[in-house]
Amino acid sequence: MHGIQSTADVTSWLVTGRELFLIIHILGVLAFAYIVAQRLVPLVRAQRDLRFDHPLVRLGRVLKFWLGQWKHPRYKTAGTIHILIFAGFILLAMRAFTVLIVGVSENFVMPGLSGRAGPIYNTITDYAATVVFLCMVIAVIRRLVFRPARYAVPARFGKAHTADAIFLLALIAILMVADSLFAAAKAAAQSQQGQPLEVLAVFSLPWILQSVLASTALPTLGRVYFGAYLLHEVTFYFLLCYRPFGIQFHVETSLFNVYFAKLDREILKPVRWGVSDERLDQVKSFGVKTFEDFTWKHVLDFYSCADCGRCSDNCPANAVGRPLSPRFITIKARDYAFQHYPVLGSANNGTPLVGSKESGSIYSEDEIWSCTTCGACEEECPLLVEYIDKIVDLRRGLIDDGNVPQSLQKPLKALESRGNPYGKMEKKKADWTKAKEFQQTCNVKIVDGKNGADTLYFVDSITACDDRMQAIGRATAKILNHVGENFGILGASEKDSGHEVRRFGEEMLFMALRDHNVDAIKASGVKRIVTADPHAYNALKHDYKDVPPVEHISQVIAKEVKAGNIKFNPVENTDSIYAYHDPCYLGRHNQIYDDPRDVLDAIPGLKRVEMIRSRDRSFCCGGGGLMLFYEPKEDQRMGVKRVQMAAEAGANVIVTACPFCMVNIEDAIKVAGMEGKMTAIDLAELVDQQIARGVEVSKRLVEQPNFLSSRARRGICGAGEFQ
Ligand code: SF4
Ligand code: SF4
Asked: CA-to-CA distance for 33 and 42, rounded, in angstroms?
């Protein structure tokens, strides 16, 4: 053939290469199948999860997020390396398969590659192997020398996985070298024998190795050829079987994880899939208490995490030193699964997941309560690993066992008795409308069966009960009044939307609040709902059923500005520089990023900058709803970090569109000692302050070129560098 014996024909220790490699193939495949079967056991024992709907949509997401590596470029360096490795693997898949078969059948050629396509494919894969090899070297150097902070493992979360990561990177590098050496030895032998040469891609790894081997004696080349093949086979199967024991398992599971990922991220997981609200009282145990209470998809998440640290790098709780790092919610659960469902030996399940380390639990209560459900982790994860549902399920488990944090007990009781966490009496819920000056300009009616309205302004607890936030309510009402909206409020009939109640795991209380509000809304006869509270917006839109369509006030204002029904006076203070803070439940959870910015850009003379973390990378202010009452362990307030980000961007006014953000940011300005240097204002308040009242509608569009061009001026500054 090419001057050296084929791998199949080499005989040593009384077995031929063909027999040896056949045995390696069979053992490798059987071992892998057995390991994967064992890894499937926890999925089989886990709870139901309905993820088999919309196959075409799911397939589209696989093409986008898995094959298209959509989220990887969010981290430029690591993302580029990953995309190159992934593309290399995809290209090399057929070559690897061919090499495997060649060991037992030397003349095997992959169908479709026997003609001209063969050399082209070989050239591409020569370069692919080279790129993958180089990426492995770069990745090892990054891990050992540059050590990006997000790979670090704080002692409280366990041991670093650096050694494991480097071992796996080295194995892949060895595989690339073995593959290239195999091709190089063959080409070098062909060259020495004057046979038609398999051309190797210039400057590729196989080409370089062929140059090195050019003058090597033929018998040595034969040994290199066989040795390279043996090394390739052993490394390939070792890697295949080793991967399900660590972070590289995502190579096998990520495609399935992306396919089965949640399609409607904003809709919280039900307490039990397949159990209706009416039958919930028959459910013996709520939430996740033991590992087996997770759904099979959540176990698949644990297997699919690549330990890249992007989730924790973006988690505000982690950033301020709360005892929560989403990456370790996953890593600890995966380690638990590996330990309690071993590949060899019997399963040992049933340990409570939340509790003390001494009792074998993997999560602490503080860890689980520290999450603001901001969604930054899910937004960032390239493999679409889910967190909020799991954390809410773990909270449901805690609540079911009566483990309610001390600081939450009072507001929860008040929610049960009064329908709001502040304990305000129902009859006082509309007192914010009775401020004298306000009443002179705007009369807010209470809608019920007798007094109808087209639009319901759903106020929600904080705006109705908190003295400072009532100003947002009045501003919202004045804007609705200005645009001629026939609106009203529910007043005493409105209870808390239950948004945070649900996310804190109190499902039954949430259902009671929701059912009450749904009845009141239906009885009011309104055709649409407007709210200035993104948490209420999210609840009404995603947690409630059978209610009229809901809009956030920023959407209403943007539409009215565009239609010319709102015109603004120029800002008076030209020294003011505004930064818009995206509330998590308006931005990330509902993709409303542009409307508030368009409104700001429509105000003549308003100077606006973007913070380093904005839009879908916005940094949570500290959380809303019951999170305001929770006293977390933390080094710094999230709001303080956010205020510092605004200052770094050059802003001295933070605009937000959520009353909870307002509480946190105004507090943070005081805590950070920035009073006088920084102020905060709600979008509704700013709009109300800047509205030019009494201006003819017809002139407005002409006089507002600023607004018309604002969409083109989106994303004024980049979202910063993430490496
Ligand atoms: S939802 Fe937000 S706070 Fe919770 S784990 Fe994810 S990033 Fe952290
Ligand atoms: S959950 Fe996603 S983002 Fe977080 S470490 Fe795992 S793969 Fe990375």
From this structure: 16
Shortest-distance atom of ligand 1 to CA 375: 1
Which tens digits make up the pLDDT trace of 598-614? 999 999 999 999 999 99
Q: Can you tell me which atom of ligand 2 is nearest the CA of 310?
A: 3
Residue 55 and residue 62: Cα distance in Å, rounded?
10
Q: How far is the CA of 305 from the centre of ligand 1 (A)?
A: 16
Q: Are 543 and 514 in contact (CB under 8 A)?
A: yes
Q: Are strands 455-458 and 550-552 parallel, antiparallel or unpaired?
A: unpaired
Q: Within a 10 A sphere around the Cβ of 237, how many other Cβ atoms? A: 18
**Per-residue pLDDT tens for 483-522?**
999 999 999 999 999 999 999 999 999 999 999 999 999 9
Residues 6+ away with beta carbon under 8 Å from 328? 153, 157, 158, 312
Closest ligand 1 atom, residue 326 Cα: 5
Residue 707 C-alpha to ligand 1 middle, in angstroms?
34
Ligand nearest the Cα of residue 311 is 2
Query: Using N-to-C axis directions, what is the helix angle for 594-601 and 553-562, rounded to 10°?
Result: 50
Residue 199 near residue 165 (C-beta atoms within 8 A):
no
CA distance 6 to 313: 51
Is 186 close to ligand 2, i.e. is its CB under 6 Å away? Answer: no
269 close to ligand 2 (CB < 6 Angstrom): no
Q: Could you give the angle at the alpha carbon of 152 between the alpha carbons of 148 and 158, nearest 5°?
A: 165
Residue located nearest, by CA, to atom 2 of ligand 1: 374
Rounded Cα distance, 489 and 498, in Å: 17
Residue with CA at minimum distance from ligand 1 atom 6: 377
For 609, half-sphere exposure in the C-beta direction (CA atoms, 13 angstrom radius) is 14
Q: What is the pLDDT of residue 715?
A: 33
Q: How far apart are CA 174 and CA 136, in angstroms?
A: 10
User: Is the beta carbon of 319 within 6 A of some atom in ligand 1?
Assistant: no
Q: How far is the CA of 435 from the centre of ligand 2 (A)?
A: 50
Could you identify the atom of ligand 2 that is nearest to the CA of residue 304? 7
- Residue 350 pLDDT: 77
At 404 the pLDDT is 92
Q: Could you tell me whether strands 11-12 and 15-16 are parallel, antiparallel, or unpaired per DSSP bridges? A: antiparallel
Dist. CA 402 → ligand 1 center (Å): 24
Write the DSSP symbol of residue 231. H
CA–CA dist 356, 340 (Å, integer):
18
Ligand 1 centre from 432 Cα, in Å? 33
* Nearest-atom index, ligand 1, CA of 311: 7
Q: What is the pTM of this model?
A: 0.91
Parts of the chain with a pLDDT under 70: 1-3, 13, 695-723
Ligand 2 centre distance from Cα of residue 313 (Å): 10
CA of 689 to the centre of ligand 2 (A): 43
Residue 69: Cβ-neighbour burial (10 angstroms; 0-12, 13-18, 19+) = middle
SS3 341: coil
| Radius of gyration of the chain measured on its C-alpha atoms | 31
From CA 289, how far away is CA 281, in angstroms rounded?
Answer: 18
* Encoded amino acid at 126, one letter: D
Pick the atom of ligand 1 nearest to 314's CA: 7
Q: Is residue 305 within 6 Å of ligand 2 at its C-beta? A: yes
* Encoded tokens for 522: 């239906």
